[in-house]
Amino acid sequence: MRIIVLALILLAVIGLWWFFRARTKEAAQQEATSAGTDAGRRLRSRMLSAPPESFGVTPTAAFPRIFAVLMDWPVGKDVVTVFSAHDGTASLYTTFSFGMIGAGEVSASVRAAATAFVQMADHFFDSSTPTTTFPYPTSDQVRFHLLTYDGVRVIVTARVPLEQGTSEYSG
Q1: Per-position DSSP letters for 84-142, written without gaps between them
Q2: Cβ-count burial of 7 within 10 angstroms (0-12 exposed, 13-18 middle, 19+ buried)?
Q3: How far apart are CA 47 and CA 41, in angstroms?
Q4: In this structure, are residues 83 and 91 in contact, taking their beta carbons and an 8 Å threshold?
Q5: Across residues 83-108, what is the average pLDDT?
Q6: What 8-state DSSP symbol labels residue 64?
Q7: How many angstroms separate the CA atoms of 26 and 116, rounded?
Q8: Are the CB atoms for 28 and 43 separated by under 8 Å?
Q9: Per-residue confidence (pLDDT) for residue 99, from 0 to 100
Q10: pTM (two decimals)
């Protein structure tokens, strides 16, 4: 009888250990997913809210007004943010747990595309408006945030014409 009681106690202890181990593992996975999801949002927010002087950039002949661009593009229920800077720095932030930081550091073609994107954005400077708020776009919009030496400017446009190449902002 004593052996049966000890066996039952042992089974109960193992069962509790297994239960709490599974719950802890599940919580850790949820926390990691949440941290990954929040990382993209935090990076985007940091880029948009930092004062221009914190980037240590000054106007040049090639980049007289804009030194970086963030483009927010809805993909299903999520948003992908592409960051491009005048020096070829490029990153991808998302509202889900995926991102790529420093893509321009490893690829000459990415550096060239990032630089060209910022130069092209300067053509649309007059179409943009100053902003201090940075909401994500709705599912039918794309937002271009122009990081200028005087603050952030924004262009909000329809997503479908951009996808079809018929928008005035299509490259």
Answers
A1: EETTS-EEEEESSS--B--HHHH-HHHHHHHHHHHHHHGGGGGG-EE-S--PPPPTTEE
A2: exposed
A3: 10
A4: yes
A5: 71
A6: S
A7: 44
A8: no
A9: 47
A10: 0.74
